C-alpha cells in the first residue's frame, strides 16, 4: 500500500503480541533505508502512565514492570507522546531515511474502543484523551504532508493517532494462529506473576479484532483514494508469524517488493538485540528474542492440530485452563481467518 501525500515513505508495524513481530521488526530495521523510531515507547508509555492513561493495569504496576522512575513518569502525556513520534519521523525524513516504528494496537486505542470491541469485564472505560495534530512531522523534506484528507474512509481510524498522521504510514499488520498466540501470552503472564487461574486472563492478547479494525480502516481509506485518483486500490500488508518462521526470506522478498525496497540489503542475523533487557516486562515477553542472533528458516514448523494442542495444554497447565484456552482460540478464529486471507 502506498502513500497518497507524495513521496515520503514511512512504515508502521501494527503488531499483535506473540506473532514474531519483534523478529519482523528487527529484520526490517537491518535495511539501510530505514531509521528506527523508538518502538513501544511513545504510545505505550502514554497509554500506561499519562494522566489520561487508558490501560487497565495500575500505573504503579506498569512502573514496576518497566523500571521507570517517578520523574520519568511525571513527564509523560499523550500529546507529548504523539508530538515526540512526529518529531522523530520528521528527523528521519530530513536525513533521507524512511521512518520505521511499531506498536501493539491495544496501546493505540482508547479504552472506550477497547471496551466496545473486547468487553473487558471489571475495567471501566476512561475519558478519551484530546490530542491536537501539531503536524510536527511536516518538515522541510515533505511540506505537502499537511494536505487535508479528502477521501472519506468507510471505516474510521480506530486509534488515538491523528487521522492525517495515521494514514500517512504504510501499514504492516501481524497475525498468527491463535493456538500459537494464546499459550505464549499465558506463559509471559505467568513469568510476570499474574494470576492465570480465572477465565479473563490474557485479555489484550486474545483478540485480533483490533488489528482487523486497523486493517479495515486502511483498506477503506485506500479504496476511497483509489476511486478519487482513478487507479486500482492496494491492499494493506498482513504478515503471518507462522509463515515468517517457515520461510523468512520468501516472506521478506514479497514484503520488500510491495514497499519498494531491495530485499538483498536485509540482514537475517544480528547481535542479540537486548530490548529493554533489565525490565520485568522484557524478561517476561522478550527473553527468547533478547538472546536471538537472527531468524532462520524452519520449514518443518508444524501446522496447528487443535487436538494435539489441547493435550499439550492439559499437560502444561490443567484441564480447566486447557478448556479456557480452547474456547478463547475458537472465539478468535473469525478475525484471524479474515486477516489470514490477506497475508503474503
From TrEMBL:
Stored SUPFAM superfamilies: P-loop containing nucleoside triphosphate hydrolases (SSF52540)
InterPro entries per record: P-loop_NTPase
Protein's recorded name: Sulfotransferase
Native source organism of the sequence: Marasmius oreades (fairy-ring Marasmius)
Taxonomy of the source species: Eukaryota, Fungi, Dikarya, Basidiomycota, Agaricomycotina
Amino acid at each position: 500500500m502506498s502513500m497518497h501525500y507524495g513521496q515520503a515513505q514511512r512504515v508502521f508495524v501494527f503488531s499483535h503480541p506473540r506473532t514474531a513481530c519483534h523478529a519482523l521488526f528487527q529484520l526490517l530495521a537491518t535495511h539501510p533505508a530505514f531509521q528506527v523510531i523508538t518502538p513501544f515507547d511513545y504510545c505505550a508509555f502514554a497509554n500506561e502512565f499519562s494522566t489520561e492513561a487508558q490501560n487497565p493495569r495500575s500505573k504503579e504496576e506498569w512502573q514496576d514492570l518497566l523500571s521507570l522512575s517517578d520523574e520519568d513518569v511525571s513527564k509523560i502525556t499523550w500529546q507529548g507522546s504523539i508530538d515526540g513520534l512526529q518529531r522523530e519521523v520528521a528527523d528521519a525524513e530530513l536525513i533521507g531515511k524512511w521512518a520505521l516504528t511499531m506498536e501493539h494496537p491495544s496501546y493505540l486505542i482508547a479504552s472506550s474502543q477497547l471496551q466496545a470491541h473486547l468487553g473487558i469485564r471489571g475495567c471501566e472505560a476512561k475519558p478519551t484523551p484530546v490530542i491536537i495534530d501539531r503536524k510536527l512531522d511536516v518538515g522541510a523534506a515533505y511540506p505537502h504532508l499537511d494536505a487535508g484528507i479528502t477521501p472519506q474512509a468507510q471505516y474510521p481510524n480506530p486509534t488515538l493517532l491523528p487521522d492525517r498522521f495515521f494514514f500517512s504510514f504504510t501499514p504492516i499488520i501481524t497475525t498468527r494462529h491463535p493456538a500459537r498466540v494464546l499459550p505464549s501470552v499465558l506463559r509471559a503472564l505467568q513469568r510476570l506473576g499474574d494470576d492465570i487461574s480465572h477465565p479473563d486472563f490474557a485479555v489484550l492478547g486474545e483478540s485480533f479484532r483490533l488489528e482487523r479494525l486497523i486493517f479495515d480502516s486502511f483498506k477503506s481509506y485506500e479504496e476511497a483514494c483509489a476511486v478519487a485518483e482513478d487507479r486500482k486500490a492496494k491492499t494493506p500488508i498482513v504478515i503471518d508469524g507462522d509463515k515468517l518462521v517457515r520461510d523468512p526470506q520468501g516472506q521478506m522478498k514479497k514484503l520488500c517488493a510491495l514497499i519498494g525496497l531491495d530485499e538483498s540489503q536485509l540482514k537475517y542475523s544480528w547481535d542479540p538485540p537486548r530490548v529493554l533487557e533489565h525490565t520485568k516486562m522484557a524478561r517476561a515477553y522478550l527473553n527468547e528474542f533478547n538472546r536471538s542472533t537472527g531468524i532462520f528458516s524452519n520449514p518443518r514448523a508444524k501446522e496447528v492440530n487443535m487436538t494435539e494442542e489441547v493435550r499439550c495444554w492439559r499437560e502444561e497447565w490443567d484441564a480447566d485452563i486447557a478448556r479456557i484456552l480452547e474456547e478463547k482460540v475458537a472465539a478468535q478464529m473469525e478475525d484471524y481467518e479474515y486477516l489470514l486471507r490477506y497475508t503474503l
